[in-house]
Amino acid sequence: MLGVKVSANVRRYFFPGGSSSSRSSSSSSSSSSSSSSNSSSNSSSSSSSSNSSSSSSSNVINIVVVVVVVVVVAVAVVVVVVVVVVVVVVEVVVVVVVVVVVVGVVVLVVVVVVVVVVVVVVVVVVVVMLVVVMVVVVVVPVVVVVVVVVVVVAAAVVVEVVIVVVIVVVEVVVGSRKEQQVKRITLAF
Where is the composition biased (Low complexity) (predicted)? Predict the structure, then answer.
């Protein structure tokens, strides 16, 4: 194109009037220059359109990158929040479980102590009742029997003594009377 423009300018410079062929060549050169200018304008428009398309594509890429970054950051924030919430919930659950276990152990110890105390009290009461029953059922009758036996033996001894005394008295009285009778008889003879 530049060669055509240069030859056209050279012809115009060296042959200003020119012939019909030169005029036709100059017209053709002018048409070719116009076509070249059109093509250059077309190319510039196409380049501008390509530039605009590339700028729009770069804008789209930038938007996509920004959106991806925002999404990644949002996902990271959500993950961190979820992890923190899960950790807090786990800690709360662990604390609750520990408290429940401690309370359960304390309650179990209290229940065991109460049961042991109740069992000891029941055993003591049962032993005391058994002792009382044994005293009432065994010791009292034995004491009563012993007392009765002692009374009976004492009564028997007293009765025997009385009998012996009576016998002795009777013998003494009878003997003295016999002696008196014998004396009377002997005195009568």
Answer: 19-56
Would you place residue 48 in the very low, low, confident or very high pLDDT band (cuts 50, 70, 90)?
Answer: low
d(CA 60, CA 52): 12
Produce one character per residue of 74-89: b if its CB has 16 or more CB atoms within 10 Å, e if not: eeeeeeeeeeeeeeee
Six-digit token pair at 117? 């105390």
Q: Residue 59 is encoded by which pair of tokens?
A: 């804008």
33 burial via Cβ count (<10 Å: 0-12, 13-18, 19+): middle
Inter-residue contact 34 to 8 (CB < 8 Å): no
Q: Phi/psi of residue 19, each to 5°?
A: -95, -175
> CB neighbours (10 Å) of residue 38?
10
- Work out the number of other CB atoms within 10 angstroms of the CB of residue 25: 18
Q: Which long-range contacts (CB under 8 A, 24 or more apart) does 85-91 make?
A: none
Axis crossing angle, helix 2-14 with helix 20-134, rounded to the nearest 10: 160
19 SS3 class: coil
Provide the CA 57 distance to its chain's centre, in angstroms: 57
pLDDT at 122: 96
pLDDT tens for 99-126 read 999 999 999 999 999 999 999 999 999 9
Tell me the chain's radius of gyration from C-alpha atoms: 75
